[in-house]
Amino acid sequence: MRYLTFALTKGRLASKTLDMFEKIGITCEEMRDKDSRKLIFTNEELKLKFFLAKGPDVPTYVEYGAADIGIVGKDTILEEGRKLYEVMDLGFGACRMCVCGPESAREVLNNNQLIRVATKYPNIAKDYFYNKKHQTVEIIKLNGSIELAPIVGLSEVIVDIVETGSTLKENGLKAERAANGKQCMEMLKKMPEDYYDMILMDIQMPEMDGYEATKLIRHLDDARADIPIVAMTANAFEEDRQKALESGMNAHVSKPVDMNMLFKVMAQILKK
User: Fold this and answer.
1) Which domain holds residue 115?
2) Does 85 map to a domain?
3) pLDDT tens track for 127-186
4) What is the reported pTM?
5) Is residue 39 part of a domain?
6) DSSP codes of every residue in 125-191
7) I need a labelling partner for 213 at 20 to 30 A (CA). Which of 21, 37, 67, 91 fits?
8) How many domains does the chain have?
9) What gap in Å lies between CA 15 and CA 196, rounded to an integer?
10) How confident is the model over 1-44, as pLDDT tens digits?
11) Within 10 A of 240 (CB to CB), how many other CB atoms are there?
12) Of 146, 174, 202, which marks where a domain is finished?
């Protein structure tokens, strides 16, 4: 009987994948052994094989048939551009792709000036700036510590994935998260009117949901009432989209989020 072969991304994503497998009765205890030097792990009972690979290599193994199934981040799928079929979103390892920089970068971004962009994702960055924002940029490929680039003067901004935003915030870059609609309102009122450029608004949140928060923002008596708001929600039906627009949001993006679609929506709103 032929084995079904999985290519797993090394690191935290592999650990979460193994947790998921164990919940459905698929075990491979050897893969948990950090001292193991084995390259391929086998579950003889279920005729499964597993191997660990660097994220960017996983799509390559699948495209060329060395693995039947790959588990990798959406950022890697978009960046590598391989001829693959994305079966499903497993719902863990959620991050967002951000363009981030110090406060001084706001003007050059808004005015579409020639800037340098540091990133591990040159293809994603190029697609966003050239095809969606229509801004000429010089893209600098880095392999780690991307947030360091604006600090040392290598680039004006970065394009990188963000999970919590803590690293960016610690280094003077602006990507901030609110736990719910109430906190979003508090953060918005606390800062100057032009501090935030856009709000990516979840819908189902404790204390105050996205609809109520949006309605309150639209009734503010200053420029903050006009801040662009994009709904990001698993509620993907047409009536959900219509409800988001009726509450005052500018656009609706369904989860799991297609980063290309999100960038396109953001670019369209900011160009208006």
Assistant:
1) 95-174
2) no
3) 999 988 888 999 999 887 787 788 768 899 999 987 655 555 555 556 567 878 998 999
4) 0.55
5) yes
6) HHIIIIIIS---EEEEE-SS-TTHHHHTTS-SEEEEEESSSHHHHHTT------SSHHHHHHHHHHS
7) 91
8) 3
9) 36
10) 689 999 999 887 888 888 888 888 887 777 777 777 888 888 88
11) 16
12) 174
